[in-house]
Write a structure and sequence with these properties.
single chain; mainly beta; seven-stranded mixed sheet; five-stranded antiparallel sheet; 18 strands; 4% helix; globular; DUF7918; DUF7918 domain-containing protein
Length: 216
């Protein structure tokens, strides 16, 4: 688990929160951030949780994985919406109002085909980020979800050239698409209040064996 004041975030696999190693924090006048290392296991689905003990301000949360934005949602302030939850779980990206794809740790494949050398930037892999942005709310409407029409970037199985020396490194891919009932949610109209996130959590993930080497 990583913590910044009243905010905390953690990653869960098989119902168990992963231990976060070597947590580091930094603060400035406008923003605060914290980071740590977690272990990943290929083929395992995972969830990102975050908790707000105060809910004194409305926050927009943005979850990005391996450089791809995967989820965006709003936690409303308690003074106006006291019955809303103070903990959020994110385990999927939406592909429509009624379809989802889960997050899954996966092994990056290697190839000796030189055509792959310039195609993939391996430096973006291995990072799960949660950003919290202060939001000025204009209007909140309780209604069935209306999903954006744009096509999101997709986390697909990746292949790297063997010269990158990244054997055994993991990345995250989306699972198979599945159907869910269309939920009723708070559709929030508002604007970000700042140019930088109010708080940021960064989880660097590696297979357990490699993680031990990174931390030794």
């Amino acid at each position: 688990m990583l913590c910044i004041g009243p905010y905390s975030a953690w990653v869960v696999v098989d119902g168990v929160g992963l231990e976060t190693h070597c947590a580091e924090a930094s603060h400035s006048i406008c923003t605060a951030s914290t980071s740590g290392w977690i272990s990943s296991e290929a083929g395992k689905k995972f969830s990102v949780y975050w908790h707000n003990a105060d809910r004194d301000i409305t926050l927009e949360a943005v979850v990005s994985i391996d450089g791809v934005e995967c989820n965006r949602h709003v936690m409303l302030a308690a003074k106006d919406f006291p019955d809303r939850p103070d903990t959020v779980r994110v385990s999927y990206t939406r592909t429509s109002e009624s379809t989802r794809r889960d997050f899954i740790f996966s092994v990056i494949e290697l190839t000796d085909d030189d055509e792959w050398l310039p195609l993939v930037d391996y430096t973006k892999f291995g990072v799960i980020t949660l950003e919290l942005w202060r939001l000025r709310v204009n209007r909140v409407v309780r209604q069935q979800l209306q999903h954006d029409c744009y096509k999101p970037l997709i986390l697909q199985p990746q292949v790297l050239h063997e010269q990158t020396k990244r054997s055994g490194i993991h990345h995250v891919r989306f699972g198979e698409e599945y159907n869910v009932s269309r939920p009723t949610v708070d559709m929030v109209d508002g604007q970000k209040m700042d140019r930088v996130p109010y708080a940021s959590f960064l989880f660097r993930y590696r297979p357990r064996g490699l993680l031990n080497l990174y931390l030794s």
